[in-house]
Amino acid sequence: MKVKTNPIKPLCLFTLLSFKGVALADVYTDIIGSIFTDPVVSAGEIVTVKQTDTAIIGDIKIGPAKGSNHIKGNLVNYGQTYTWKDVFVDQGGVLENYGNLSVAQALSITGNQACGKIINHTGGKLILSGYMDFYCYSAELENAGILTVVSSVGYWNYQLGLTSVMRGRMRNTGALLIDNSESSNNCNNLNWPFAITNEGVFEIASGSVCDFATSPAQPISQTGTKYPRTGTSYTQVSGETVVNGTFGVHTLSLKAGKLSGNGTVKRAPKVLGLPALEISPGSQIEPIGKLTLIPEQGITIFNGTVNIDLSSKGNDLLQVEGNFYMSGSAHLYVTVNRNLPLRRGLSFTIITGAYVDTNFSSEENALLPPLPAGLKWQIVNDGTSVKLNII
Q1: Predicted TM-score (pTM) of this structure
Q2: Of 156, 157, 162, 364, which one has the greatest count of Cβ atoms within 10 A?
Q3: How is 248-315 classified by DSSP, letter by letter?
Q4: Phi and psi of 172, rounded to 5°?
């Protein structure tokens, strides 16, 4: 097995993001002579980009690059790697990133005999300003570092993110951020079978859309097993899903961890979460916020904990565009910002829906902050909203 390194003059990855609208050929004049040619990595070969190296895959020119490169062996990046051509990780090839990896065009997983794999290790930073698509059903993406989907850089104009063919699986134990408000949908997967497991932080930024389920899923009885169209599933077993934009999948299963944000979750399932799941409107950037759930079947049953913050600037709100039932094991947990003076007559609307059925009208399942002497909390459910009153 052949091992080689590519000593190329280093360049900071984040320099790239500051050159939008600049002739990229001018930026890289001093390293144009160090460009990989097709194929990048042959089968059985290991190419290592050292921590002090910079690697360029594809020609640098004004306008979209032509052609493609293939990773059929193992490309391991510890330094700075930029792709300016379509890159195919195929036939059992592996792309591993420990450093900074910038993808300006397509990053695809393919393979007829064996499927490729992409691993963004802890400490790795992968910036996707182009798009990813996975064509084989056993494709794998492991993210333990930071993976960010952003708008196109320079003269490239690919506003696709995780695009229309996503098959296989993705496991996130790091931080994955969809931050591209210029695209109408960063996660347009149609209805291919794609399984996402979240054990880290999966975040959709404000103004960004990540809706994998723009096309309805189809049962195996209709499509058969050779070319299934069962759609995208998202399972959270720990960690946090932060929705400050719009998020949707065909099958949503939040078993534990937290769902937070100031955005909209589409196609919420009939039964949302186990007792270990917390719903917390708001985010670190905007602590007081409104989180909207749109039930797929018009009804959502929740048996975890709803966290609500009250402050002098307002209060959190969980808005459900359908019927919302909090089961016997569900809890309400309320915190108060110290800048909010608590006094008689204050009222806070914390949950709304077409119909709201809660189990804490007697306050047995509600953990409320202490009040000054002579005051007490009153929980009022009028059928379409839940209010907290101080009386």
Answers
A1: 0.86
A2: 162
A3: E-SEEEE-SEEEEESSEEEEE-SEE--TTEEEEEB-SSSSS-EEEEEETTSEEEE-SEEEEEEETTEE
A4: -110, 115
